[in-house]
């Protein structure tokens, strides 16, 4: 019986392995709105739609207040995470060169704001040309075999269904996804915009550990951009940026990207067959 219980524990571990410990970096260090966002009429964190989606899919999410500089303790917290996601709802000035994000954070990092990609920030591109999407966004699959497209219907080179759209929240029409229109610095393009205002702009891309970015900094861990989250309505505090704007397919791709970046093993038939064989062997020996 003890051996059987051990086998059950092994299977339980395998079946629960799809949960990741995620640090979510944001203006909002709780699910409630920051003071500035609350002053603009928000009750919940602007980006709560993403953290709710992650939690609903079994991930453990801890919020981390965007700030600079990073202390040694901050870096230890970030490096203890399976994945760090920098929300659209952050101050891009916290990610200027030599802010340690590129060279000291060894955990995988997903960046959701095009403003952080600029050559004055994380240097993931060679420029700072920013354009907001103005309507429904469908992506071109530049790497259609990438796991981020698992379960997504493609029509030729493009997604068959929209990825995201502009949203109305807090009684106001928000601006769209902010796309950096410059060339990637060392990254591999996965998906780009087909929307007229931002056509060709990178929306999903990745960088391997050890890649040198535009200013020569060498990445201490893997990086991905996954552009999502609204830009704040004109004239309103930037702490209201980051409302959830993904479609059903976009949401699937976001979860695929999280699984890919955390290299989370999914239970498969091989695991189940192995467990069954071990179980039957144990039962025969008990007879």
Keywords:
14 strands; eight-stranded mixed beta sheet; 18% strand; 24% helix; two-stranded antiparallel sheet; 287 residues; disordered N terminus; alpha/beta; disordered C terminus
Overall description:
This protein is an alpha/beta fold and 287 residues long. The chain has 6 helices and 14 strands. It has helices at 2-15, 35-39, 48-56, 72-79, 248-262, 269-286, and strands at 21-26, 60-65, 83-86, 109-111, 130-132, 139-141, 154-155, 158-159, 168-169, 172-173, 178-180, 188-193, 202-207, 223-226. It has an 8-stranded mixed sheet with strand order 2-1-3-4-14-13-12-6, with helices on both faces. A two-stranded antiparallel sheet has the order 5-11. A two-stranded antiparallel ribbon has the order 7-8. The chain is globular and about 50 Å long. Mean pLDDT is 88; it is low at 1-17, 264-280 and 282-287.
Q: Kindly name the structural category.
A: alpha/beta
Rg, rounded, reads 21 Å
- Name the poorly predicted regions: 1-17, 264-280, 282-287
Task: Please provide the count of β strands.
Answer: 14
Strand order of the largest sheet: 2-1-3-4-14-13-12-6
Largest sheet: 8 strands, mixed
Strand and helix map with partners:
Elements: H1 2-15, E1 21-26, H2 35-39, H3 48-56, E2 60-65, H4 72-79, E3 83-86, E4 109-111, E5 130-132, E6 139-141, E7 154-155, E8 158-159, E9 168-169, E10 172-173, E11 178-180, E12 188-193, E13 202-207, E14 223-226, H5 248-262, H6 269-286
